Amino acid sequence: MTSDIMTVEKEEAAGWFRSLQEEITAAFEALEQSQSQGPMSDRAPGRFEITPTKRTGDDGEDAGGGRMCVMRGGRVFEKVGVNVSTVYGTLGQAAQTSMAARGVPGIEEDPRFWASGISLVAHMQNPHVPAVHMNTRMFWTPGAWWFGGGADLNPCIEYAEDTAHFHDTLKRHLDPHGADLYPSLKDWADEYFYIPHRKRARGVGGVFMDDRCTGDWRADFALTQDMGRAFLPAWLPLAETRRATPWDEADRDTQLRHRGLYAEYNLVYDRGTKFGLATGHDPDAVLMSLPPLAKWA
Q1: pTM above 0.85, yes or no
Q2: Three-state DSSP class for 112?
């Protein structure tokens, strides 16, 4: 199942990412609407701005696009983006070399690709509400296909019970796919979301996978779907619990400094950011993950 016979599977995966985007954006707007007390509750509830994105190839041909949903200046969210995209075309030489180094077969002989996914990053108004990231994706070339993605929690003020809930919920959704899967993907996330030049993690972890191809497309897609389904029950209760907690300027300073870590990681190390910029996708959509404000000094 490595040729264009996967057309149906591609459409199914892209449709799932779109439906997950709709579910999450609806839940986030409902969270904004229900914020009736505490800091920022006197503001108008935030709403997503929806912008179609387009990608063109080197010759100006259609190369896919997506739907960028961004909310700014809400009661709960300072900035949150929930983007979906489906892009295709021919990989440039640098991307071909990178893919070949990762063991993707035949990529230098036939560098066509197709990729679809959802990417979410939320930066919060209240420093007690943890920032969060989630993405899942499918990638196809004529010689291979695979899934990737994950979710990780990025609190600037840590609560042990929040971390436990986030991880327990991820584990509960992943355990049906194998008891050894959650520990493995947790360790992968701890390694992937580490900032070498700071010698620390950017948050309290989560799960992460890449190049997931067991040979059973249906099973790997089901796992990817359950990673996506885990997100709202893992994170939403934390936001509901912490959103009315009072905070002061010291808390805000802690938040802004922590966001600096997030910005450094995404600009220096994140594979998705590098791929998006290298393949000519809308830079505003690719850089949606960056915080609206951050501080280094």
Answers
A1: yes
A2: strand
